[in-house]
Design goal:
Helix content is 21%, strand content 30%. The chain is α+β, with helices and mostly antiparallel strands. The longest helix is centred in the first third of the chain and has 14 residues.
Length: 132
Amino acid sequence: MSLLRPGGAVLALTLLAGCVSDPGYAPMDPAANRYFGYSDTPNGAGGHTIRVVLPEGVENPKSAFAHWERRAGELCGPAGYRKQLHTARRNMMMMPGYTPTGYSYEVMGDVWCNDPAMAPADPVAAPTVPAA
């Protein structure tokens, strides 16, 4: 009987190793080797482009959408926002001679804040026309 307990523990650990938990809600930071999470940049149209990448094997792939919505809410505040999601994909890792395997879930889209005060400063200012 005592031989079954260690074997059961090894089996349980092996099964759990196949599950990957959500890495948490945090910004991506390649300098810190954090390649999963979110990033956002001003998109030049008065809004932001938000990208969320979660690893393959997360318990619920839809959590990538939840992270996207959360970041949009943080950027735009309580007045809300308009959105256009343009990318929702499962990235695959391809290696010659091997079966393709899932790598990550990615969601990307643009958000425009309903409150103009929350819009990012336009990095490319329009040229001024001198008064005639």
